[in-house]
Design brief:
two-stranded antiparallel ribbon, 3 helices, mainly alpha
């Protein structure tokens, strides 16, 4: 039961993060002045948000792994949350990517 609740929490957090990214991206596209360029197909804001989430979490994972290796920090092999086993660096990277859009200030 605990693992189901944990899984639902992760899905909810990812959904909220993606929703915020879509909002940020849509707002940025609306404020971009139109130019006299040929029309190009654009991916949907959801596709952009998902690509950003995966890209940011992957970049953070690489950075954390390199930092832990450089500083010779002991990192456990597995983290057990709700009966499920995870890579602790991956969990930390995903959490950082999930909360990242809430700290980005939109330039106006």
């Amino acid at each position: 039961m605990m693992s189901v609740a944990f899984g639902l929490l992760v899905v909810l957090l990812c959904y909220l993060s993606l929703r915020r990214r879509v909002h940020n991206r849509t707002r940025a596209l609306e404020e971009t002045p139109a130019r006299d360029e040929p029309v190009r197909p654009r991916p949907s804001p959801l596709a952009d948000a998902l690509a950003q989430l995966v890209g940011i979490s992957g970049g953070v994972y690489i950075g954390f792994t390199a930092l832990a290796g450089f500083l010779k920090l002991p990192v456990p092999d597995k983290l057990v949350l709700g009966g499920l086993q995870f890579d602790p660096v991956a969990v930390l990277s995903l959490l950082a990517a999930i909360i990242q859009p809430y700290f980005v200030r939109h330039r106006s």
